[in-house]
Amino acid sequence: MKRNISILLVVSLLFCSLSLFVAADAPTQLCYVKLPAENDMFICEPLEGYDVFVPRGENFRFYIQGKDGYSVKSATVSVDGMIFYETDDVEEYFPGYYDIRVFTIENIVKETEVKVTTVFEVEKAGLFDWLITFVTKLVQWFTDIFGNGFNIGG
Fold first, then answer.
1. Beta pairing class for 42-46 and 120-121
2. What pTM does this model have?
3. Per-residue pLDDT tens digits for 59-90
4. Cα–chain-centroid distance for residue 97?
5. Element (H, E) at 47
6. Helix, strand, coil in percent for the chain, rounding step 5
7. Coil/strand/helix, residue 108
8. What angle do CA 79, 117, 99 make, to 5 degrees?
9. Are 53 and 133 in contact (CB under 8 A)?
10. How many other C-beta atoms lie within 10 A of the C-beta of residue 124?
């Protein structure tokens, strides 16, 4: 009986040691970040030092840049269908560049898809920016006049 218990104890210790060894050497699970394909309007690429295969739980940084004649200043970027906003300073990565936007997706745990829309030709981008500024000032003006009782949409 003592011998059976000893054998079970040794087998259990070996199994536990092997389990720890295998767990320690298990490959890191990678999550794929699908970026938009290069096109005539813009490029979307990982920042230097980043790859589209991201270790689970890590951050991923990327940028978008307008090609000749196009602007990404007013571009809408979505991550897995949700609108996403810039999280990094362009000057830190691209000193002196104007039409580049830098983003960080934090804690990636699954395959992730990035989409970029509303990329305009440079002339139209200026008009779109003007329109956004106008509407923002108009809303501010109504808010100043009517106070907090002014609410768009209800």
1. unpaired
2. 0.64
3. 999 999 999 999 998 889 999 999 988 888 88
4. 21
5. none
6. 35, 30, 35
7. coil
8. 100
9. no
10. 13
Residues 6+ apart with CB under 8 A from 95: none
Let me know if 131 is exposed, middle or buried by CB neighbors in 10 A (0-12, 13-18, 19+): exposed
Cα dihedral 148→149→153→154 (10° resolution): 130
Q: Residue holding tokens 């050497």?
A: 25
Contacts of 64 (CB under 8 A, 6+ apart): 42, 43, 44, 72, 75, 77, 100, 101, 103, 116
pLDDT digits (tens, 9 = 90+) for 132-142: 667 777 777 87
Closest CA to 84 of 38, 133, 128, 33: 33
Side chain identity at 25, as an amino acid letter?
D
Both structure tokens of 27: 């490959």
